[in-house]
Each structure stands twice: as structure tokens, then as C-alpha cells.
Amino acid sequence: MVEPASLGSSCEGQWRQQIISRMDFSGTIGVLLAICFVCLLYLSSRKKKNWSNLPPGPIPLPILGNMLQVEVKELIKSLRKLSETYGPIYTFYLGSRPCVVLSGYQVLKEALIEKAEEFSGRGDFPAVQMWSNGNGIVYGTGERWRQLRRFAISTLKNFGMGKRSMEERVKEEAQFLVSEFRKTEGKPFDPTFFLSCAGSNIICTLVFGERFEYTDEKFLTLLNLINSNWKLMSSTWGQLLFTFPKIMRHVPGPHRQIYKNYLQLAAFVGERLKMNKETLDPNNPRDFIDCFLIKVQQEKNNPNTHFNDETMSKTTVNLFFAGTETVSSTLRYGLLILLRHPEIEEKLHEEIDRVVGPHRSPCMEDRSRMPYMDAVLHEIQRYADIVPMGVPHTVTRDIKFRGYTLPKDINIIPLLCTAQADPTQFKNPGCFDPSHFLDENGRFKKNDAFMAFSAGAARMESPFNDSSLASTEHSTDQG
Questions:
Q1: Using CA atoms, how far apart are residues 92 and 219, in angstroms rounded to an integer?
Q2: 10 Å Cβ neighbour count for 402?
Q3: DSSP H stretches of helix in 306-460
Q4: How many CA atoms lie within 13 A of 410 on its CB side?
Q5: What's the pTM value of the predicted model, to 2 decimals?
Q6: 191 burial class (0-12, 13-18, 19+ CB within 10 angstroms)?
Q7: Sign of the C-alpha dihedral, residues 59, 65, 68, 69?
Q8: 213-250 burial, b for 16+ CB within 10 Å, e for fewer?
Q9: By the 8 A CB rule, do 327 and 205 touch?
Q10: 300-344 pLDDT, tens per residue?
């Protein structure tokens, strides 16, 4: 029989042993965490030695970088505010990744235009890269990207980007759009859906060779996928993916839907590719896809070609995804701005009546005779600021820039919005003022600080926006 005293002593010994084991385990975890922290600091210090001549910026925390010093939902606003403290070029850490932020017209011009080749690398954009893998026209790099860009611009121009055939497509879509407006019978309504359909259809006529009815189920599914991805990328989850891509790719959450949506878009494009392949006439290309298929055939014996089915699919999705949102958003802001400025709309009507009249639609040939319309279109794009940050860049080699050393492949964040709000270039940057693009004689004048979508490269969206806005304004005036 076991004595109570010995039983108590035995239990107490076991209890002490468990406590010691737990303390040993906790101590081991603590030591491991301390070692990891020291290693991170060491790696961080090694990187800082290699990047000793980067521009100044806020002091980053290990792992988190500068993310606690900004509002995630207001990242652009926060980055602009930091430029007030650290100047037009400063270093900002997205997690452990250093990025050089550029702001103000002079700095952006010097980097993206005067040193365009050095700043032509594509930076990190995980929401797109996890699907594209560096392929396609938006986030491709190097020679492949240059060849795709040249091909896309040339092909779209041949299909009338800014020419008569494109004008006819825009005019046609404007009539469908205004027809939908008339169905509301003067009652209050939200034009967002109709404008998205119209903007997307303009892209569809170029890329797919046809437009879709606003009730087409597949078309509506595409619009929902695009809208969903834009919302997800601008959400807190999307910002976390942008900041911590390697971690967030393995974390469950709404951001994982971005990849699934891209796959659905690619599946639709795949169906269109199959249809075009089966009916292709190399002597009579109908759309962008046909032109790409012909190029693939021409390059089939070239082992180093960048033109293949995968690149074609991803480039087509890029054009459809990026073009749809920029056009529809610009149209939406344009209508809102004109509603708030009836005096400007009245002057537009006067110019339309004088130059175009009531019996025809405007055409590109009218542009030189409609300086006020041209100025208003540019001011809408400047003021609306649809793409405030632009595509992230990298430098293609180690360079000296404004007294600092920027190492190869470092991420560059160009704040295009700061050029369009630069008080040295626009007298009233915070106001909607078409005179920003008019000279003292009322003639249209260009402004190099106008960077609505990009700088240093051809803007493919602008002709869509200009033609769409002009046609919509004229059609509304007639209706």
C-alpha cells in the first residue's frame, strides 16, 4: 500500500518535472525567436550596406517596413504626404522591400521620359504577377515586353485606334449607350452599369471583333469578374498582398479570389481563341486575336519567338481588363464633373452646335476646330486621376539619379498624380479648369505634365476616352 506522503511526494515531483519541461520548451522558443530576430536585423543591415546611398525616408521596422506609418486604405494619399517631409524622391519599405517613390513633374519627367530606358523594368504587382508570371503586355519585361508592346500598338492602330473605323465603332456604341439612358424616362438612375458596358464594348470591338448586348450573360459575367478584381486589389486584403506577397499567397482570404477571377477571364479568352483559329483567314484579319494568330504562324519556326498561345491569351486579358476600367471610369467621372459644372457643359454645347451641328456626330477631323472640347477632355482625365500611381517600375541597371545610387531591380513607385497636381504646371491644380489646356487665344495647348495613364510610352487608352466622351456628349445633346 502506497503511503499518502509518498503519493503526495510523487505527484509533486511529476508536477515540478512538467513545469521544468514547459519552461525548457518556452525558453527554447524564446531563444529561437531571438535568433531569428537577430538574423533579420543582420540581413537588413547587410542590405543597407549595399543600399547605403538610397534616398532618405521614414525609418522602417523589421519585416513590417513602413506599413505602420501609412493608412493602408489611403496608400496614395499617405505616400503623397510623406513626400512633403522627405522630398520628391524618397525610400519607402513595403515590408522588407525597399521602394523609391518619385513625385512631382520634374522628377517624374527626368526618370520616366529622359531616362526611360533605365526605368523601363517592370516592378512588383503581385495581384497580376501571380497569374501572368511575367508574361503579357502589362507585366512582361525585357525584349519580350518590347516586342509585344510594338505589336499591340501597331495592330490597334491598323484597326483604327483614333482613325475613322474606330470612330464608327465609338459612335455606334455611344448610340446604344444613349438609348439605354433614354429608357430611364428622365428618372434618377446610376449610370455606372451602362458606362461599364459601353467602355467594355469599345475594347471588345477591337480585341474580339464584335460588341455584346448589355443583357448578354457571358458579357455580364466578364464585367463582374473585372469589377470584382478591381475592388479586391484596392481592398485591405489586396494591399496586404501587395506588401507581403510571399506570405499572403499562402494565407486564406478574399484576395485569393483575384487569381480565380483571372482564370475565368482566361477561360473566356481561350474560347474566343479557339473560335478564331477555326475560322481564321490570314488575308482578312477581323480583330486583334486574328492578328496575333497570324503572327504566331509567321513565327512558328523561330525557336526564340515570344509569340505563342500563352502570351496571346495573357496579352488579350491584359488589354480587356485594363482598357475596360479606364474607359468606363473616365466616362463616369466625365458625366459627374459636367453635371457639377453646367456653365462648362453649356460652352461645350455651343461649340458642338457651331462646329458639328445637329445632323451628324463628331469625328476626329473636328478635333482641330473644337479646342474647348479637347481641353475639357484632357482636364477630365487630369482631374479624375484614374491611375494615380501608374505601373510599378524597376531600374534595369545600377544608376545615379539626383545624387543617389539606385541599384538594379529596385522597385520604383511613380506617383503620376503629383505631376497632374503640380502647382508649377497647373495654376489651379485642385480645381476643374479647362483653361489648363488653353492658351491666351483660346487654342488648345499641350502640357507635358499631363500623365493621365503613363509617361514615356504611348497611351493606348486616351483615344478611347476622348472619342467616347465626345460622342456621348454630342448624342446626349441631341437627345
A1: 40
A2: 14
A3: 309-340, 342-355, 371-384, 416-420
A4: 29
A5: 0.79
A6: middle
A7: positive
A8: ebeeeebbebbebbbbbbebbebebbbbbbbbbeebee
A9: no
A10: 888 888 888 888 888 888 888 877 888 888 999 999 999 999 999
86 CB neighbour count, 10 Å cutoff = 16
Closest to 68 in 3D by CA, of 85, 92, 41: 92
- Would you say the C-alpha torsion 171, 172, 173, 178 has a positive or negative sign? positive
Domain residue spans of the chain:
67-478
CATH placement of domain 67-478: 1.10.630.10
Q: What is the pLDDT of residues 353-399, one digit of tens each?
A: 999 998 888 888 899 999 999 999 999 999 998 888 877 889 999 99
Residues 6 or more apart in contact with residue 413 via CB below 8 angstroms: 79, 92, 99, 100, 101, 102, 123, 389, 392
Strand-pairing partners, residue 413, are 101
Task: Fill in the DSSP letter of residue 404.
Answer: E
3-class state of residue 129 by DSSP: helix
Letter string b/e over residues 331-363, b meaning 16 or more CB atoms within 10 A of that residue's CB: bbbbbebbeebeebbeebeebbeeebeeeebbe
Say if residues 419 and 349 touch (Cβ distance below 8 Å). no
